Task: structure prediction
Amino acid sequence: MWLALVGRALWPALKRRDDSRSITMLLFLSTIAIGLFYGAGLMWATRRTCRCRVLALVVVHLWVEGFFEVFATAVIAFLFTKLGLVRGSTATSAVLFARSYS
Result:
């Protein structure tokens, strides 16, 4: 449901061939990653053994530390691009740079 809602909102921007296409694609890819990792965390949390609960915590931790951070950075960069404050290529570089050094 998360992917459908965000994908539907981003679809017109993904079809356009402009300067902000790369940042839009990063935003969409981080949306996909968030859905996949959150779904994996929910599947592991259905088990009742202690080891699976720890694994669910690890999956959710990876989701928060690894993908939600990229999503939040990409959203802010996307907004700055649409407001005309930065160019799309600069915003894309900033998102990739922020992820590689966090």
